[in-house]
Structures are given as C-alpha cells and as structure tokens.
Design goal:
With 466 residues, the chain is α+β, with helices and mostly antiparallel strands. It folds into 2 domains: 150 residues, 3-Layer(aba) Sandwich (Creatine Amidinohydrolase, Chain A, domain 1), CATH 3.40.350; 296 residues, Creatine Amidinohydrolase (Alpha-Beta Complex), CATH 3.90.230. It is 39% helix and 13% strand. It is built from 16 helices and 15 strands. It has a 5-stranded mixed β-sheet with strand order 6-5-4-1-7, with helices on both faces. Strands 8-9-10 form a 3-stranded antiparallel β-sheet. The protein has a 3-stranded antiparallel β-sheet with strand order 11-14-15, covered by helices on one side. 43% of the residues are buried.
Length: 466
C-alpha cells in the first residue's frame, strides 16, 4: 500500500474529472471459494477499488461523493469468532483512516447510502462487475435488475478511471520495475530448467514458486508450452523434447498488485536450428522495430510497423511474397500473427480491459465518444501518453487449421506461399514480449539495461552456462 496521500489525491482527481451531481460506488472483491466457503482461492482485490482505496481486505464498498469532499468506507468489523482463526484485525474505521477516508459504516449501510442518492435524483456511477457476486451485490445496492446492469453502468466513470490508471506515477513505475524483477527471475528460472525430458509442469511450477517468493503470485495463468502456435495454451502436460521450441508467456505481481508480462521462446536443446533461428530473428526484428519508434500518440502505427517488419522477414524467407506494405494492407500477415501488437499493463495484466472492449458490457456508448477516448480500453482509438506502460509482443505462429482454412478460401494467395507452409505444421510458434514505458520523447523498456536474454546468442549462451 502506498501512503494515504496517494489515495486521497486519486479520489480528489477523480472527483475533479467526473460530472457533478452524483456518487461513485466501487465494490471490493470478496473471497472466492475453491470447493467450500472456508477453502478459498488466494484473495485478489479489485484493481480499481485498490487504486482509489488501497485496501487488501475482502468485502468492502467505497463511495466517493462527487459534490462534496466526502468519502465513505463500508464494511463489517471482525467478530471474536473471526479473531480466533485470524488473529487481531483492524476495525473498518481504522482501515478507513489508514487511506484518508473520513467516514466508515457497517456494510449493510452501503445500500441505504446508494438508495438515498438515487431517491435524491443523483447519478450513481459504477463499473460493470466482472464476478457473479459483484453483479448480485451491485443489484442489491442499486435495486437494478442483474440483467439490466450493462444498460446503466457509467461510461464517464470507465473513461476517467482508465485515463487515470493508464498514466503511471513515479511510485507506480517503481512498483512496475519491481514486477519486472519478478518476471526476470521467472523467465531465467525457466531457461535454467529447460532440457529434454523435463516436464512443462515442473517448469511452470518452479516459475510460480518464484512469484510467491518475490511477490503476490502470477499475474495470469502461465503459458509454458511446446505448442506455441496455440496462443493461450494453458496446458502444462507436455514433456520437453529435443528439437522443439518452448514458448513461455508469464508474469508476476508485486505485493501491491502491479504486474509484469514477458514472453520468451527458446530451444529445448539450448541451440536453435537454422530455420528456428531465421524465424526467431524475424520476430525479434519486429519486436525491436517497435522499441525503436514507440512514442506518445501512437498505437495503431506500432501495430502496423510490427506487421510490416514481419512481412519483410517472411518474404525474405520465401514464406510470403510480393510487397510488404501491400501485404499488410491486404491483411495477409494475420495468418501468421492473428492478434494485436500489445496491451496496457499495470494493476491488471490487460490494464482496464474489464471496463472496455474486453469487458462484458455493450460498449456502444464508449464508441459513440471514441474521438475523446484515447485510453487502452478501446485499442483502435488508443493514443499512448507519457506514463503509459504497454507490452510489445509480436509473434509468428504456424496454426495448421488456420492455414488450411485460409488456403481453402484462397485468401491472400498473391502474398502467401502456401506450398511451403505445410512443412511447418509441427514448428509451433514464436512470440517475444517485453514491457515498455512511454516517455515524453519516446520509450524505455522496464528493467533498464537489465533484460531477460532475448537474442539468439544471449539465449544460447545463458542456457549453456546454466
């Protein structure tokens, strides 16, 4: 947790940005049972609640009055029965004071507060809940049917929260540098362990252990697979085989829940084959091209620049043909990289996407205001700002079913050399990912001069030495 002045300043800044005549209601997360109530998954606080109220405790609701400098924390004090199992716990009043909130009340009073605002004709601003329990709680607070929540969520709140959370302060950047250190330890651990005969599960488990030693666990379920052509391959059932590539996409969270997200692809044997080296270097060139040009105001241009670099490399290898720019314009590169270049990163591994294009809400109201939305919640309108952190993660994947579909449909035949792709159906995929901080004049990679081995030479040397 940061100092209380950080949270006071954030709430006041949100108050300044939001239209008057209402309140903001932010619900914290509750415990999520694994198989019965007292056996819960590791607790993870809602990121937006954490951003404005800073508290890692379950079952809290925060209210920010937009017309007065008044913030209220709702929750229930622990009973003696709880303390027997948990030890002494701070009261809700003490929790509120620790983050500069002047008022506190029992959890049940949150409904009265929200209902009173609604009766007075005040707007109740809330974000779309992403957990079932949150949907039910928001329905109880507002009286709005669960099926109607998406028609009443606050576009103003979503936009302003995303705009604030995306631009990182100096203390947040320090936290994300700590997250980089966790990511560095995770990925170098994976490289040390990888060799023929080692199970993917052993590598994934060792990496997760690192995150608990240095922080608060993984920032998402780790991808550790020799089938890198499956973009989100969460199976760890394989056994490393000589001649294969292992794709590791993984990150960790600090104790304050700031995330890292890196991908490395490296040879199980410790040595790239000539073909693996050639394709890897095409991806690395696309990755480095983004590093070279990224600056404020960009995103779509970065995505297209990575596509062009991939097209040029694939043409050079004979897997594509024609003009690179024309191939990008025709959409031909999507066969090899069917995803965007990157995403926002911060307290969520896909920062703020719970309230935007990746959320459950109909975001038509956001699209109607697209010209004023420059945050990561709508990527086609994203305009990077100094303080933004984003991932740079181009890739090349040989997905047999996808290639066969395109081939049958005769898509982009003038650009794709289908006759050479069938021999690559067992190749897998390559992705390279690092986390960039946008600065006033350009960008810098988190970690500074320290980086996870990334060139062919660095990876081979590291695996040989370790």
């Amino acid at each position: 947790m940061f100092g209380k002045q950080t949270y006071i300043a954030r709430r006041n800044e949100l108050r300044r940005r939001m239209p008057k005549g209402g309140i903001v209601v932010l619900i914290g997360n509750g415990e999520a049972p694994r198989n019965y109530f007292d056996n819960a998954y590791g607790f993870r606080q809602d990121s937006t609640f954490l951003y404005y109220f800073g508290l890692q405790n379950a079952n809290l609701v925060g209210v920010i009055d937009l017309d007065n400098e008044r913030d209220i924390l709702f929750g229930d004090d622990y009973t003696v029965d709880d303390i027997i199992w948990m030890g002494p716990q701070p009261s809700v009043k003490e929790l509120a004071e620790s983050v500069g909130v002047g008022e506190s009340a029992p959890f049940v009073a949150a409904r009265d507060c929200v209902q009173a605002a609604m009766r007075g004709g005040r707007k109740v601003h809330y974000l779309v809940p992403y957990r079932g329990e949150g949907v039910l709680l928001m329905s109880k607070l507002t009286g709005i049917k669960t099926s109607e929540h998406y028609n009443h969520y606050s576009t103003d709140l979503a936009i302003n929260v995303a705009a604030m959370r995306e631009v990182k302060s100096a203390e947040e950047i320090e936290e994300m540098e700590r997250a980089f250190e966790i990511g560095y330890a995770m990925h170098t651990t994976a490289m040390r362990l990888t060799k023929p005969g080692v199970g993917e599960r052993m590598i994934a488990g060792a990496m997760e252990g690192v995150t608990h030693q240095l922080g608060d666990g993984v920032s998402f379920h780790s991808i550790v697979s020799q089938h890198g052509e499956t973009l989100h391959n969460h199976s760890h059932d394989g056994v490393c085989e000589s001649g294969r590539l292992l794709l590791v996409d993984a990150g960790g969270e600090t104790v304050n829940n700031y995330c890292s997200d890196h991908t490395r692809t490296f040879p199980v044997s410790g040595k790239f084959s000539p073909l693996q080296r050639d394709i890897y270097n095409v991806v690395l060139h696309a990755h480095d091209e983004v590093l070279r040009i990224a600056k404020p105001g960009m995103y779509t241009d970065l995505h297209n620049a990575s596509y062009k670099a991939l097209a040029e490399g694939l043409i050079g290898l004979g897997l594509m043909r024609g003009n690179a720019e024309e191939a990008v314009a025709a959409g031909a590169v999507r066969l090899f990289m069917p995803h965007g270049l990157g995403h926002g990163l911060g307290m969520d591994v896909h920062d703020c996407e719970a309230m935007g294009e990746r959320g459950m809400a109909d975001y038509g109201a956001m699209l109607a205001r697209a010209d004023e939305i420059d945050t990561c919640i709508i990527r086609e309108r994203w305009r990077l700002r100094p303080g933004t952190v984003l991932t740079d993660e181009p890739g090349i994947y040989f997905i047999p079913a996808y290639i066969e579909q395109w081939k049958a449909e005769k898509r982009c035949e003038e650009f794709i050399n289908y006759s050479k792709l069938e021999s690559l159906y067992n190749f897998g995929g390559i992705r390279i990912e690092d986390d960039l901080l946008i600065t006033e004049s350009g960008n810098t990679m988190l970690g500074g001069d320290k980086h996870i081995p990334v060139t062919v030479e660095e990876i081979e040397a590291f695996m040989a030495e370790n």
